[in-house]
Amino acid sequence: MSHNIDGSVLNIRTDLAIEEVNTENVETISDENIKITNIVIDENNKNLYNKKIGNYITIEFDDVTDYNNAKKVENILIKELKKILKLTNIKDKDKCLIIGLGNQKSTPDSLGPLTINNIIVTNHFFNIGINVEEGFRSTAAFSPGVMAQTGLETSNIINAIVKEEKPDFLIVIDSLKASSIDRLNKTIQITDTGISPGSGIGNNRKEISKDNLNIPVIAIGVPTVVDSITIVNDTFNYITNHFSYMKKNIDNPKEKLKIIRTNISKDNIDENDKKELFGLIGNLNENEIKSLIIEVLNPIGYNMIVTPKEIDFVIEKLSNIISGAINNSLHKNVTNL
Amino acid sequence: MSHNIDGSVLNIRTDLAIEEVNTENVETISDENIKITNIVIDENNKNLYNKKIGNYITIEFDDVTDYNNAKKVENILIKELKKILKLTNIKDKDKCLIIGLGNQKSTPDSLGPLTINNIIVTNHFFNIGINVEEGFRSTAAFSPGVMAQTGLETSNIINAIVKEEKPDFLIVIDSLKASSIDRLNKTIQITDTGISPGSGIGNNRKEISKDNLNIPVIAIGVPTVVDSITIVNDTFNYITNHFSYMKKNIDNPKEKLKIIRTNISKDNIDENDKKELFGLIGNLNENEIKSLIIEVLNPIGYNMIVTPKEIDFVIEKLSNIISGAINNSLHKNVTNL
Amino acid sequence: MSHNIDGSVLNIRTDLAIEEVNTENVETISDENIKITNIVIDENNKNLYNKKIGNYITIEFDDVTDYNNAKKVENILIKELKKILKLTNIKDKDKCLIIGLGNQKSTPDSLGPLTINNIIVTNHFFNIGINVEEGFRSTAAFSPGVMAQTGLETSNIINAIVKEEKPDFLIVIDSLKASSIDRLNKTIQITDTGISPGSGIGNNRKEISKDNLNIPVIAIGVPTVVDSITIVNDTFNYITNHFSYMKKNIDNPKEKLKIIRTNISKDNIDENDKKELFGLIGNLNENEIKSLIIEVLNPIGYNMIVTPKEIDFVIEKLSNIISGAINNSLHKNVTNL
Amino acid sequence: MSHNIDGSVLNIRTDLAIEEVNTENVETISDENIKITNIVIDENNKNLYNKKIGNYITIEFDDVTDYNNAKKVENILIKELKKILKLTNIKDKDKCLIIGLGNQKSTPDSLGPLTINNIIVTNHFFNIGINVEEGFRSTAAFSPGVMAQTGLETSNIINAIVKEEKPDFLIVIDSLKASSIDRLNKTIQITDTGISPGSGIGNNRKEISKDNLNIPVIAIGVPTVVDSITIVNDTFNYITNHFSYMKKNIDNPKEKLKIIRTNISKDNIDENDKKELFGLIGNLNENEIKSLIIEVLNPIGYNMIVTPKEIDFVIEKLSNIISGAINNSLHKNVTNL
């Protein structure tokens, strides 16, 4: 079993509710190739899943580098943000502090700071008594950096500023870690349960949540990295399903031709195929395999992240979508032209 | 008389003590073309100058784009920082928070954030119980951004973080405003009297000082801009002295030839020449001329800064000098190899 | 007379046609507070103005930090770009190379490189035989940097790439120098006469134009700086007109109250007032005053630029407008949603 | 077998000579934990290895985030650069063009552009006849960007500029792809055989080499990424050796305790253990396994890179080491103080 920096046992966990919750019995809306899933974790089901009580909205889409698709995602994000503002009882005049977590200098971790760059801030106008147009609330925006650069616990910085500035609610943007490479840059999760800074690419840090700060915290996250454990494990599964597919189609040359362009899934593993293919390893279940990978990779001292090559381009598009949607949902007078 | 945003009368003021204090009776050391001036403002002379009680060390130099010259300036800055740490009773193990004021996106205002990029931070290692090598103290570093980007009063952010993190002392780096174009990027001021964020390029904001934070605050500032009032007024003076020079040398062609390469000073104005040359304007004293310039430029709504063309290059060199000197003076184990 | 680096006599010149041409007899369209001026320099009038033969379209506007205003400016820029593409006989399938001149690290000089960041490039898809959607032409984009960083003459780099890549036409974006502070960040000039890199903030460099490259060159420029000569001279004029205004209204307290908020123009100087106010200096004409300012400021070795404080914010908006308009006017399939 | 974008068969290849060449019979010098290996590929051994004829110098080190270690690496790099300049017959006055390949916006691919930021350029002074101090040669520096941003083939841009500017030799800096995670950011390779831009993180592009440009090309590369195939395959091997180790020490609890801190190698695989552990997969050789991984991952359309989390910090240190060493080895008058 592997240990992280503070000596506690590392739980293999994901930042995305949708990856842990059985979504068969949740509401799902499909809109123009964009899928929205609402998951509610409450007293009844919280023990089933390793997730906090609250709402989790997941928007799944295909490709935000396409301009028209990006516009659609932005419009849906506006609608869902307005919905969660209502669910959390945010009023029109409530003062909002928007926080961009992450490291501007590390491309896959720069989503938060990049988003902050395009947030409309008005709080200083309210403070110094400048007449602000009707339809704008008080907003402030902030990027606390990461502990490796500041030497400070990010949650402490946020806690301090919340105490000083007394916003009515927070919106926090962060890069997340997915537990599957299929989701990278193709999912936005909105939740009112808060966030742990650095949980995506670092160790668990103190949580930014209503429990700790006494004001509503809406977290917007996008999985931009998987860790090396995930990609190894996913590959095991792809290999197994590839093998199962080949076995079934061994005499069917037409089907075999499909293989290059077909997206063989890594899910619904045939356990017997896995054992045949992978020997002793194939006898382990997913969690055992992951523990084993952690066990062997950890001593090398390398903490690797896996990210698509075109991440710089995609992250810019995603930050534009999120900043646009935040500006639009917070201020009545901003319209998504 | 001109008014700034909150209705109060704008005082024409400078961030540099050396520009306001009569330095004839202060200690001055000249070392390899680098001049160090120590000014002490105390109960006796504080009414003479518009400056707070405390120590002001000014290092004047010529050109930091020269590698060897930059090294000399860095070494002197290390010595002077160590001196002021001693004067302020900072102990070897005292925890330091280093703050980079200013706007990373605006070249002449980016000195603070650029310097922070190269500060050695160790505070998180102390906090999580990692064994830190002997010879390193606890340091943290932070760039609060500017109000136009965050909507938050910079001094409030700093106040909040100081309350939360309880450092023993602060070092604050900022771009300053000079009241003379000769000084731009050629002076470093160190003071234990604190700083007002944005005083260089913006309005007076709340002060970051021992008075407000109850811990020593060492401010390191470099004048990187002058305002438009300064350049106009300086030009008036240069023109006057040019005129005086020409008059005196009207029959001396040899002297006249010098003019192109000579650095005609803008100081020691001949008041009669000024009147002859500038008519009614020449009858005004310096403060009256500055007030007049503010009066006519202000309504245009433009708040202009004046900076040298090569500012991007110079600011990088200056930030390297300052971060190197801070690292070296704070940690015994860092040597300026 | 002052000399620049290569020994030639410096001509006081501006990059904006509209500042040198008597626009009384040119077509001017006023559209929702945005003014468009078409100036045509031809064989007949080229000697009147210090400008090359060709078309100069000038779009004047007020404030691009307002979202709705920015959208209007972008739409007009699209229309005018399409017009000049037609005038220059550019065909739908002609291959375009877009070049962003300037220094990304110096905020007022970063317009070109920032614009390039958001240009849609397709040339590599055409080259490697990927099927490009109907409605897209071949586009490439490039930022050559500045000579102080590269050691290379910018026009040489462009010349080399044009020879190698053989585009059918160029679009070049650059920061310009205005000769009046009123215009800063409030004017876009489009011309088919080309551009001299660095003419805005540096010395005259070799021209990027059809004459030199044998393909049409459309230049898009925005004045983002004035030099120190301009601000001093402008101030002289503002002071004079302020004085004229005060004299006329000396017994009219109501009118005097207006002064703080009124935009006293710096144009239409009363020459007698100027003489009364400025003595000998007031007897000089504008060019003589400018030469005098250059004469006295040059030997200090400072080459100063003057720019508004909020330049970082404005330049980002301007680059978005220009990149959006270029993408839209070059590709039929991009719409300004 | 997998296919890349232009239809050709993808060869699994590495950018590092040291990973392909049997280094038992090459000169190796160990200096203060830094290992230098000289590999010479000539007519006799070129068919043994998939490498071009020429010199390959490899510097292996541990950690450049340690200041003193970084200085040692820089000093060795200076020595080795001077050596290869001599080997390539570069004269003291030969004009050098330094090129930083890669994408400034993608952290692991930003080594080239970051290095360029700190290169001393002098070429423009020579060109305009400014007297350059003795001990400086003519240098120019350039970052051509990447094809995804420019739409232009990088090698074409370089070819064009070389034709125009006629430097006597090139130094090219790039991020490389390693075929083993142990090497990431811990190896610098210098070679006189040139480089293929984008070979590290992209497809094979046209080569930048003496063969194509007719001038010496010295390439400096650091492996900053591995691809997903590598990390999966490495993990297979780590698991196997972990298994072998456990089997041998099953009754030796003391040895078992070592496992967490011990760096179990991924090399010297026991083939029987591999078969027992991995079943059918264990019967494949390394190349077959890699082909299989490519086969199953490719159709997902994801082209993943694997990089250490702290890459932003390390890449900055590496770029400082390389720029410092280039400045020092090219100009006699720059000393590594």
Summarize the structure.
With 337 residues, chain A is α/β, with parallel strands linked by helices. The first copy, chain A, is built from eleven helices and nine strands. Chain A is 36% helix and 18% strand.
Task: Map the helices and strands.
Four copies of one chain form a homotetramer.
Chain A: E1 27-31, E2 34-41, E3 54-60, H1 67-87, E4 96-100, H2 111-116, H3 123-127, E5 139-142, H4 147-150, H5 154-165, E6 169-177, E7 187-191, H6 210-213, E8 217-227, H7 228-248, H8 253-258, H9 271-282, H10 286-297, E9 304-308, H11 311-330
Parallel strand pairs in A: 4-5, 4-6, 6-8
Antiparallel strand pairs in A: 1-2, 2-3, 3-7, 7-8, 8-9
Describe the structure.
Chain A has 337 residues and is an alpha/beta fold. Chain A folds into 2 domains: 10-225 and 308-336, Rossmann fold (3-Layer(aba) Sandwich); 230-306, no CATH class. Chain A is 36% helix and 18% strand. Chain A contains 11 helices and 9 strands. Chain A has helices at residues 67-87, 111-116, 123-127, 147-150, 154-165, 210-213, 228-248, 253-258, 271-282, 286-297, 311-330, and strands at 27-31, 34-41, 54-60, 96-100, 139-142, 169-177, 187-191, 217-227, 304-308. In chain A, strands 1, 2, 3, 4, 5, 6, 7, 8 and 9 form a 9-stranded mixed β-sheet that branches. In chain A, a hairpin with a 2-residue loop joins strand 1 and strand 2. In chain A, helix 1 (67-87) crosses helix 11, helix 7 (228-248) packs across helix 9 and helix 7 (228-248) packs across helix 10. The radius of gyration of chain A is 22 Å and the shape is elongated. Chain A starts with 26 loop residues before the first strand and ends in a 7-residue tail after the last helix. The model of chain A is unreliable at 1-13 and 200-204 (pLDDT under 50). Chains in contact: A-B, A-C, A-D, B-C, B-D, C-D. The interface between A and C is small, with 4 and 4 residues.
